[in-house]
Amino acid sequence: MNAYRREDVLRILRLPSRQLNTWERAGLVPSTEEYSFQDLAQVRKLRDLTANRISVSSIRRSVDAMQKVSGLANPLVQSAAVRVGSGVVFRQWGALVNPISRQMAFDFELAPCAGMQTARTSSSAHPEIAAQAQEMFLRAVRLEESSRTVGEAAEMYRGILELQPNHAPAAINLGTIYYNQRDFAGAESMYRKATIADPEYALAFFDLGNVLDEQQRLPEAIESYEQALKLVPGYADAHYNIALAYERLKEPRKALRHWTAYAKLDPTGPWASHARQQAKRILAQEPLAIVCRHGRQMKGK
């Protein structure tokens, strides 16, 4: 069985350490320095749910309830998590199970139901096609972890997108393969496809911002990062990248807000010190306007 070090998990899933620490404190993932492939799949699922604006407390309540109702040891891995409003239900036994209310509904992929949508898959797919795509996706993820089989993973992701053109995770992962190969045009195409397939997928907009940044298209990159922040206001890495982009555009005052936000959101992370230093430098160098109590404006020295 493959084992992944903590830093490998953070790198593969592009997570800030703060986020993983939060899930560990909530008991959603084990606190360890070595992760199995199942652990990796669980962290990936948590990343996707969080990017879809599901709170950690809501996920925790739903997982606890599902364990009691279903007897599943690990519902996040053993069943498919589905977003309904601001909460999580699980696809199990051919139905959608709300473990908190202990109610079941028809699976919308079998019979469409208003107000319900999955975190990442196309609701128009036939159940057999959806199951095939999911199996292919898991195989592709495994293949992607070895440099020798990345090409096979890319082919499998392309196959998934032929079956389900709106499969956002496949588009994201294929885009990341292109990105790592420095095929930025291919990566941009896939990331844009993911944002269309799932307009509430913050990670898709964040990744799109990254590839636009690589191409020196900074205003477009900032726009994509800002969209990620609209979806997930606490997206620390988006604040960090926006700040960097504004610095490169020589707009330090606009960068200041994002340096400050990042330092507050991730105060102990590896880049927090840099963010604080940048904010301090801008405050020291920029003659910022100060408004006194009587409404008169004075210039800072």
UniProtKB/TrEMBL annotation:
The keyword Cell wall biogenesis/degradation does not apply. TPR repeats lie at residues 168-201, 202-235, 236-269. It comes from Bryocella elongata. InterPro entries: MerR-type_HTH_dom, TPR-like_helical_dom_sf, TPR_rpt. One of its GO terms (biological process) is regulation of DNA-templated transcription. One of its GO terms (molecular function) is DNA binding. Pfam families: MerR_1, TPR_11, TPR_19. Residues 4-64 form the HTH merR-type domain. This is Tetratricopeptide repeat-containing protein. The keyword Calcium does not apply. Keywords: TPR repeat. PANTHER family: PTHR44998, UDP-N-ACETYLGLUCOSAMINE--PEPTIDE N-ACETYLGLUCOSAMINYLTRANSFERASE 110 KDA SUBUNIT.
